[in-house]
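Hi R.,

Here's the chain you asked about this morning:
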Amino acid sequence: MRASLIQLSVDSSDSADERRRRAASLVRGRAGDDLVVLPELWTAGAWAYDRWEHDAEKVDGPTAAAMSAAAREAGVWLHAGSVVERGEDGTLYNTALLFDRAGELRGRYRKIHRYGFDTGEATLMVGGDDIVTVPTDFGVVGLAICYDLRFPELFRGLLDAGAELVAVPAAWPAARLTHWRLLTRTRALEEQVFLLACCATGTHGDMRQAGHSVAVDPWGTALGEAGTAEETLTVECDMAQVARMRSELPVLRDRVLAIEAPRRR
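And the predicted structure, written out as tokens:
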């Protein structure tokens, strides 16, 4: 299975329409791939809170239309990163969209863990509550977004829902690059899945994004890692490795799900 992570540069100088046109062009250029992944909130900017109301859209809005067409034209499964979704009641969500090779929307995930510590996303958006996996022609894909990486229970839930590969769009801050590298490898290793983490690059909302998009195999080994500029990282994933790893190193069967807290003396 061949996958490409398109590490878009998301800067304050360009508009959502300009980003959509550039992203669609880059996706169309990936014909022959099986899966393409884009970053988190690349249309509005994950740190440009002042643009969210203006750039929010319905699930079937302009970003979905452009990405559906690009996926169909390229013949790829497309994880279109995430958008600022405006729900029916006007509520905002950070929502990931997954399209199949025909351009049909096959998966929608509303980010469960909102970043901000009582500011930004944590106050302006509502969190989702559904664990989402999608069967594809190359395996079961689990959906997570950026800050979700810090919460292993979500990834254990994705594993239990059948995930063999987890796609993680992100706009991770450059100041915490060390955490990004550690968590992406850890989540892949502990769940014995492929993890494709596509992070934006550039600066907006006074936040420099980390870049360093990475593909990690079930052994925790990076198959490839991008730098800090806009680029496309392409890797080959042997999906049979998931079952092989789980058989040869069957740690998941030794899980103890109900460990009681120790009594205080």
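The longest strand covers residues 77-86.

Let me know if you need anything else.
M.
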